[in-house]
Amino acid sequence: MQNSRPQIEIHALNQILEVTRKLAAPFDLDTMLSEVVNAARSILDAERGTVFLYDKDTDQLVVKVATELGTMRIPADKGIVGECAQKRILINVPDCYADKRFNRAIDKETGYRSRCMLTLPLIGYEDSLVGVLQILNKKNGVFDDQDEYVATALAAQAAVVLHRVKMTEAMIASEKLDREITIARDVQMGTLPKKVPTVDGYDIAGTFAPTDQTGGDLYDFISISDKQLFVLMGDATGHGIGPALSATQVRAMLRVALRLGADLDEAFTHINDQLVEDLPDDRFVTAFFGQLDGTSHTVRFHSGGQGPIMHFHAETRHYDWYEPSTYPLGYMNQTDLKEATVIKMAPGDILGLVSDGIFEYENEASVQFGQTGLARIVDEHAEGSMDELVTQIMQATYRHGGTVSQADDMTIVLIRRLPA
Fold first, then answer.
1. Residue 292 in contact with residue 328, Cβ under 8 Å?
2. Using an 8 Å Cβ cutoff, are 254 and 267 in contact?
3. Could you give the CA distance from residue 262 to residue 266 in angstroms, rounded to a whole number?
4. What confidence tens digit (pLDDT) does each residue in 35-94 have?
5. Is residue 303 a contact partner of residue 288, using CB atoms and an 8 Å limit?
6. Distance in angstroms (rounded) separating the CA atoms of residues 395 and 389
7. The pTM is what?
8. Structural domains of the chain, with CATH
9. How far is CA 405 from the centre of its chain?
């Protein structure tokens, strides 16, 4: 982080990551939401907090968890909470009693005096309305721009909590292995990028093909600016709902860290150290954290157990293969992170992030697809679109396997600098 950034951002980052990591904990819905409300009060130095869940059948907002507030239902189009839900916007009210939208009846019923409030929509996957988070009465003054900034990050995590816990409860209710696998796949597929961000001068593509025994592969693109893109790819050890949730946890923690201003090194270190506390000793997450700069045409990255990383040089038709630069996330505390690896993307060059499910795909003779198989396909299709190259690699992998079934998740992320 830059020295000029306010100290509260570092404080907020640590506390919100503390909330985010609890996505993997086996708590019920009420407990998880209470954690979110308590964290909001602590981070924002506020007196009270409330989570309203949206009931689509009745078009109402239902108080699910609140500080000293009982059961209550509110029409989804009434008051400040309703406007927040309808318009899906953050509403900062510095003086509640001066705002005509404020419903004084609640204060009258509870004997509490609402002075100022922040109200934020909770938006889940597929842009669906999950509910509303409302924070009341900053202890010293009113909520400012910094509070809005931090609260927005926290609200995003509240939406993740709701989605994750509901899916987990559905899994427990089913008590069937096939149901567990279906839920795990839904978790994975639901968190994949819906579209690939654009970076001038670059062609970018990605795909993910889970196995029947679902594992924990993930990838994500996070736009930092028109010229900068953060790229994540990883693999949580194991199969089933646990690794899928670990993958979701890493993605959520990274997005929060970047939103609060963490740089590449800080994001990698913070998330690694938190996973050391959270994951069992025999669990970890291999991960590539990289930042593409479309101005300098460089990619800076840390590769925690993820490799090999492919760099195809278009001019010479030569390949560089980068092995992991450090150990996997969650394996041990990061005390001396090396300088990030930097590669220069010349016109036509391709950066390839490919999971072990492709490299290690075996045929009937137990021969792996390997780097040789990947390089052969890249050689043949390097001048085409990256979407087409992704398709060609997947098809070639399946052809290589023949009658052998897919044994692991397969994930590909390709970044090509377009020819000048």
1. no
2. yes
3. 6
4. 778 888 888 899 998 888 888 889 999 887 665 555 678 888 888 999 999 999 999 999
5. yes
6. 10
7. 0.64
8. 7-169 (3.30.450.40), 189-417 (3.60.40.10)
9. 30
